[in-house]
Write a structure and sequence with these properties.
The complex is a heterodimer of chains A (252) and B (740). Helix content of chain A is 21%, strand content 23%. Chain A has helices at residues 14-24, 67-77, 87-94, 151-159, 218-225, 230-236; strands spanning 2-7, 28-33, 44-47, 81-85, 101-103, 111-119, 135-142, 146-148, 163-168, 187-191, 197-200. The longest helix of chain A has 11 residues, at 14-24. Chain A starts with a strand and ends in a 16-residue tail after the last helix. Chain B contains 25 helices and 28 strands. The chains are: A alpha/beta (252), B alpha+beta (740).
Amino acid sequence: MRIAVVVFPGTNCDEETRYVLGDVLGQDVEPVWHADTELGRFDAIILPGGFSYGDHLRAGAIARFSPVMKTVAELSRRDRIVVGICNGFQVLCEAGLLPGALLPNAGGSFAGRWVHCRVEGEPSPLTRGIETGTVLKLPIAHGEGRYTAPPETLEGLERSGRILFRYCEPDGSVTEGANPNGSLANVAGIMSEGGNVVGLMPHPERAAEAELPSQDGLPLLKALVGIGAAKEQIAVGVPAQCGAGSAGSTAR
Amino acid sequence: MTSIERVMVASPTPDLTDAEYTSIVESLGRVPNHVEVGILSAMWSEHCGYKNSRPLLRRLPTTGPRVVQGPGENAGAVDLGDGLLAVLKMESHNHPSAVEPFQGAATGVGGILRDIFTMGARPVALLDSLRFGPPGEGRNRYLFNGVVAGIGHYGNCIGVPTVGGEIYFDPSFAENPLVNAMCVGIVERERLTLAKAGDPGDVVLIVGAPTGRDGIHGATFASAELADDREASRPNVQVGNPFLEKLLLEACLALLPKGVVRAMQDLGAAGLTSSSVEVAARGKRGMRLDVGKVSRRESGMTPYEMMLSESQERMLLVVPPAAVAEVEAHFARWELHSDLAGEITDDGDFAVLDNGVEVARLPIPLLTDEVPTYTRQGQARPAPTMPELPPEPTDYNAVLLALLASPNIRSRRPVFQTYDHTVRADTVVEPGLGAGVVRIRGTNKALALTTDCNPRYVYADPRRGAAIAVAEAARNLACRGAEPIAVTDCLNFGNPEKPEVYWELSEAIDGLGEACRALNVPIVSGNVSLYNESNGVAVKPSPIVGMVGLIEDRSKIPSSGFVAEGDVVFLVGPAGAELQCSEYLAHRLGRTDVLGPPPSLDLNIERAVQEFVREAARRGLLRSAHDCSEGGLAVAVAECCIAGGLGFSAESSSRDHLLNRAQERDQVRRIDATLFGEGQSRFVLSCRSDQMPGLASLLAESNLGGITTLLGRVGGDTLSWSDDLSVSVKELARAWNTPF
């Protein structure tokens, strides 16, 4: 799979995103500078995390005007896969490619910690093949991650199964206590009406190898590049099989 | 003026003493002009010139087989094998943080990052060592919140994980907090870049942010005591822009492989002045710099202001004339402008021009080698006396919970959670308990990183206290199975002109040297921050030790907390029933002053125990490893329980074994002393039953069987110790997680 990882000035998760997709998952990954507009050769486009334009004004507000975003919008209409992670999610919302917005965290401060997310909704480029109710331990690192949307938008997302991830307890229950930033309905990630644009606040690329505190991000990225094997995906939902010392020891 | 006619000339600035000014006039053979006085007072400040500390710093060990770059450059560098170097440096930003905590701390992080990428290294980890007045009070809270938010703001935005550091509270830091930031980078050996001028005719470029009026005279501000009217010092504080620094970082690192950069130097303290002078001095060249060619943020800035501005996110580069166009285009792609501001000369002078008109000319040696140094007479302070011990407590549970909740022991998670510690996806062990670990991709290796210093110990006995800081840092690394390979230090003290403070500084440096020699770890970079006083009262002396350890095989890192039910727990190290200077005693007596001398330290035992722990980790014989520090053995065991979410029950024999060992060492035979004493060189280790034989033979090989106590087993949901202690892990965690 040919994957573009877009680099805005201030993007800071491009390197590890490329590393995981390229070196760990063996895909053909290329960094694309935000001034480039030729993206036709790619099967998928990733907008990685970071602080594009220093989050000036608000996260993603300037990046949406970047030359590359015009092309990204066009390609999204032609069913190309577009994934926004953290700041990328913020950019996609600002650009109107995903509904809703991401506000400053309810707690008022940056949240850099591990959370649990429940997979649900219709199959998406990141979650296809992963069973509904699967709980993933993933890191978040953001100051503006409080998802919000008008009631009718939220209802539409719920009804059409486009909420893909919700913050939850380790056992999968969706509670207020498990919500790290005050997101509406614990929403951590969503997809577009067309089903080809996905945005999420947690960082699967930071949890994709056995030696890291969790590798629950791996099945998401495998699903993206189309190498997900059913066996491995089932294992994700069962904490006991995630390896001694990592799963179960929540919030270390 | 001849020396016969030498008369004292009154200095036009409080930053230079009359005697210093007289010697400058004599050396120049003329009176310096206004711009020159500004340059001289910056270069002759303690911050740039190390007037008081230079003679003392020569006593430190700075060499070793791994050392590629010792002190003298922007950062030190040590060999990691595989063609890679670790580059490390720690620096203080105390005074700016006392005045404007958010920007003060943020620019401290920005400055230390530049020191690392100036060397051509990719920053891979940040740590912060912070000292505040007791939490909860008005101004202390303001400073604490501001500093923590500032660190997060800069580090999070630039995308370098914060993987460690520590926070310590003491009333002496209330008006003068300490903010020390440490950064570690990795660079391929052949890409290491030095800040040494090239050839005459080479072009000097100033890249990055335009220059404004912020931080003017920051270096001299940092070299004086804080006055009551500190609010008036706000213009001395710089303002940070991490977004710009991210662009500068990427642009600089991407430029280096083109091979056209002769020298690179960041603009830190004393801005254009010190960066230019240092580059020229290291290359034994001169430099001509035209401030009229340097982009500025505001109009009407004078050459004096331009030379002394500490505007952030600026870099000085030296490139051959033929490469100028290429370099300009490179930075333009990153949306950064580069100003052709000067050139390297061979006359040995530092000449400053303002649009072609010379406004200053000073010989480089006058600004560097000829900066005077002062060796002063120190005056020892009598050792603090040991108070009478309180009776043994009736409720040990309450004492343990109170200690876990005390500001110097409780969990730092609320702070770490506002920092991004997972960015770069290389953080194998997260901050929270002991050293953080970042992996080195493409190898089996990893770096373990820590900062340490107990100011109470240092105040009580500067030499031993400083040695303990080194020992404790190495101990934290040993828990990860890491060999200590380099130290960067930040020496935070009061006014060295006071004999007692000078004595503290001198003794502490000797203590650092002794411990580093004993543990075989060189000091490759560092920073000295003196004049940390407010209203004439010095902070507790704080020689902060930042240490880097190398893990050869990162698949064998022991956990901090207990891992599984049934694992065997034991203590390796001296009896340690030493209550002096302890958190326990402070708690029991309700006192914040220093209570007796610091615990004893035998560096031979320290080395032997650390070697044992490292070797045990290397052989895969350990499940968990944690050291005993503030709060002693009971707190260490409690932290292992909390981190692992598992209980512990003590062997009935352990109580008497510890008491007997204390008695043999002529220590008090008291249960509270064995549980809460802060004796050094001790580790709480756990292993599987089947690892016991291997460990036993390693203990025998290491000759440490005599200082080992079997403590008990991991299991259940309660920490229980004979009849003395029984607390559920839940309760322990609740106390430990007391918010600030």
